[in-house]
Amino acid sequence: MTTVFIISAPSGSGKSTLVSHLMAVVPNLMFSISYTTRQPRGAERDGESYHFVSRPEFEAMVARDEFLEHAEVFGSDYYGTHRGILEEARAKGRDLVLDIDVQGARQLIQKIPDAVTIFILPPSRQVLERRLRARGEDGEEVIERRLRDAAEEIRRYSDYHYVLINRELDESDAILSSIVRAERVRRTRIEEQIRPILESFKA
After folding, report:
1. Residue 46 has pLDDT above 70, yes or no
2. What pLDDT sits at residue 147?
3. Mind listing the domains of the chain with CATH numbers?
């Protein structure tokens, strides 16, 4: 049984770093690589960070109902999760990790109600602003927009099963991997493994 982990956070909260570390330390996970119409940044490569496609290509995929979820982010670029990734994870017997924004998460929760949802929260607005500026990727206007969006996104924290306040990287890494490991042994997820053990104790 494939467990789907949905992880969301305001931009600059450290989500990508935490997810990268999670994938490195917890076995049998598959990361869902999103599709986007935005341009690659820095060292990003197609098929690794994102699947980069043109706007017409993305809209054609939407018309063919190829996405589990999709959204227009910041009013300019599309992002979406392809249906095929969930099918692939199930076929390989792996759990699926999705790093997506609040809009996408809300759509996915409707389609995958048993998904485990985790919201990563910055310790404060001041810390988030400092992290955004330290990245050196965005101009003043973009940073201010991201902070405004963050103020809206964090109000959705109560939609999630877990809230991880990312104060210190090592501690947050440990908490995130613990959530994943604990969810894997939830009774309702391993009933098929439990039954033969019970059968072995029958007289």
Report:
1. yes
2. 92
3. 4-200 (3.40.50.300)
